[in-house]
Input
Amino acid sequence: MSESFEGNRVRVIDSHTGGEPTRVVIEGAPYLGDGSMADRRIRFRDSYDSFRSAVVNEPRGSDVIVGALICEPVDPTCVAGVLFFNNVGPLWMCGHGTIGLGVTLGHLGRIGKGTHRFDTAVGPVTIEYDGANCVSFENVNSYRLAKNVSVDVEGLGTIVGDIAWGGNWFFLVDSETLPTSRPRVSEDRHGKPFGLGDIEGLTDITWRIRQALERSGITGADHGEIDHIELFGPPGDPKNHSRNFVLCPGRAYDRSPCGTGTSAKLACLFEDGKLKPGDVWRQESIIGSVFEGSIRIDGDKMIPRIMGTAHITAEATLILDSSDPFRLGIRSQHRQ
Ligand code: PYC
Output
């Protein structure tokens, strides 16, 4: 059942984190009740999907934009509650969005330099804000669920990857293990095939992997849908450790190195004995932006810390004109 929401004006602040946009809704969002953040996420998904679509989808937005709805936190140690969403539905958590939210609240003067906490659908996360453009955040417990999982992918044959949780579910595949006969559109400026010039090919491959996982009934814990596919390979810049390409649930690729995806990668590295507490992992995105990752161990939990920068790009009021046939957005083809 879909409820309507009041008002036709929605105030937002736009930013990008390493090239990946975040649109924070600061006024005009529906009230989601006073249940847990996970309950509010369900209410948002089931009752306010048209609000989600109006904020992030075309013609106001694009498939790439991640929205962040801020609300009162449940946990009193948090400065804000936040629900992240994209072109097809709510996310569980969003790393680049957390960095974008930190810089946005700083821009609004709602937080200053220092330590703050945000309440998310998967639990509180702690950020460290430098008072300008840099945020590091401690994510939720991240772990690898399964190593070397084989899946038969149409047109590609058997692909092997790891299933890991970093606040969303990921299937991580070494790009060097992909069939070399796959179509390559072109090479990037460093002459590497795993780059911006290959976006169409990488999107096609990762979408096929996602569909194959679904067809084969391969999921995360508690039947959690694996809706993020992460390819990783050598970095374009030798200062970094790896480059990735992350396909998000609505078939847009992450321009940033993906905060939850980098957390999932750190979990795999840790469990393979390739990363220990205190080590720094520089994860490069497919467009060359970088997050710095590290880990700490807390009992049986592995807590990733991700650092990146965000910049404000707009302060705006969205107008939902009742005479506009597309006031609630053009529905994504992937949703129907
Ligand atoms: O940074 O975690 C992230 C993220 C998820 C989807 C897009 N970005």
